[in-house]
Amino acid sequence: MARQIDTYLEPLLDEERFAFYQAVCDFSDAEIAPRLLSWEREHQLTPDDVLRKMGELGLFGLTVREEFGGQGGTHLDLILMGLALGYHSQSVAITPGAASSLGTKPLQLFGRDEQKKAHLPDLAAGKRMFVFGLSEPGRGSDATNPEVVAVRKGDSWVIKGEKCWSTNARWASHVVVHALTDPNGRPGYRSTCFIVPMDAKGVHYQEMEGKQVWLQSSTGSIAFDEVEVPADAILGEENEGFKVMATTLNGGRLFIAGLSLASLAFMLDKCRTYVQERIQFDDKPIGRFQRVQDVLLDMDIALHQGVTWLLHLVKEYDAGTMRRESAAKVKIECSRRASELAILAMDICGGVSCLDEFGLIRHNRDLFVCRVGEGSNFALKSLSTRPLVPEIANILE
C-alpha cells in the first residue's frame, strides 16, 4: 500500500524534490525496515554500515554548500529526509537529522571561514559528526543559564561541567558546548559556544543507560574536566551563545515536527491496512464500524494539516522570514496530535498493537521524545504565548 502522506506531499513539491524524497523512502524500505526489529531486540544502535550508506547518499551534507562538499540543499531537503526515514524509525532518522540541524547547522550559520573549511567537508561526507551540548543534569528547559562554565585563562578558555541527553554522542568527533562565560551579563548575553574535540584531554563520554525511547539513537553524557581550548574554538561571538542556541533550535523544532508526522503517517497506513484485514463479528472487517472510521479520518486530517503547515513554515525558514514562535507552535501541535492519535490507533488495533513487530508501540514510545525534545511542549507554550500578550511578556522579561 502506498504511503498516504505522499498524496499530500507531492502537490507541494517540485518534481526533483519529490524524487529525492522517494529515493530516501526506497532506502528506508530496503535498508532499515527489514533489519529494525533485530536491532531493537538486540539493543543495537544504528549500525556503522547503515551510517556509511547514509553518508554515501549524501544525507549528512544535504544543507552544506557544494563548495564544502555538500549537496547545496535547503532545510526543506532535511525535513523530507526526516519524513522518509522517520516513517519506519524516528531513532534512525534522528542521527543524520541531528547531525545536520544541531551539529552542522550552527557551524554553517555562525562559523568563521577557517572553521568551515576545517570541518564542513568531512561533516558533509559523514566522516565527522558534531553533537550539540546543551542539556545538563540540572538544566532542562532553563537552557539559557548553563551550569557548564568556561573561564578565561590567558589566550585560552577552561571548560568544566557536564552535558547530558546529547544526541549522536557516540559518533561525534566534536561537541559544540554551550557554556556560561559572563554570570553577570544581561539575559541572552551570558554564554558562549565552543567547538571542542571529543578526544581533547579532560573530555569524557558515556552512553546513557536504560533509555527506552529512540533505541537506535546514541544519547550520551559528556563531562568536561578542566578542558582547555584556544580562543579560536569560539563559535560565533563571545557571550552570544544564546543566539547560536536559539537560532539552531528553530530548525531542529521543525525537524521534530516532521518526525511526529512521519510516525503519524506510518500509524495511519498500518491501521487502514489492518482494519480492512481484521475480520470480526459476522465475518466482516472491523473497518466497517463508525468509531474505527472516525479514528482513521482524524489521523488523515491531522496528517494533511500538519504536512501543509510544516512545509509552509520550512519555506519561510529557508527564506529567513519565519517567526521563532512558529517553529515552537508547529512542533507542539504535531507532536501533541500525533501522540493523542497514537493511543487511539493502538486501541482500534487491539492487543496486536503491543507487539514490537507490529510497529505501533515503537512510534507511540518515540513520540514522547517529540513532546519533550528541542524544548518541552510545556516550556514552548510560554514562548509561543508571549506575542499574544505582550504586556505580560514585558513583565516576564
TrEMBL record:
Keywords: FAD, Flavoprotein, Oxidoreductase. The keyword Flavoprotein applies. One of its GO terms (molecular function) is flavin adenine dinucleotide binding. Residues 15-127 form the Acyl-CoA dehydrogenase/oxidase N-terminal domain. Residues 132-227 form the Acyl-CoA oxidase/dehydrogenase middle domain. Pfam families: Acyl-CoA_dh_1, Acyl-CoA_dh_M, Acyl-CoA_dh_N. Residues 239-377 form the Acyl-CoA dehydrogenase/oxidase C-terminal domain. It comes from the Bacteria. SUPFAM superfamilies: Acyl-CoA dehydrogenase C-terminal domain-like, Acyl-CoA dehydrogenase NM domain-like. The keyword Electron transport does not apply. Its cofactor is FAD. PANTHER family: ACYL-COA DEHYDROGENASE, ISOVALERYL-COA DEHYDROGENASE, MITOCHONDRIAL-RELATED. Belongs to the acyl-CoA dehydrogenase family. This is Acyl-CoA/acyl-ACP dehydrogenase. It comes from Eiseniibacteriota bacterium.
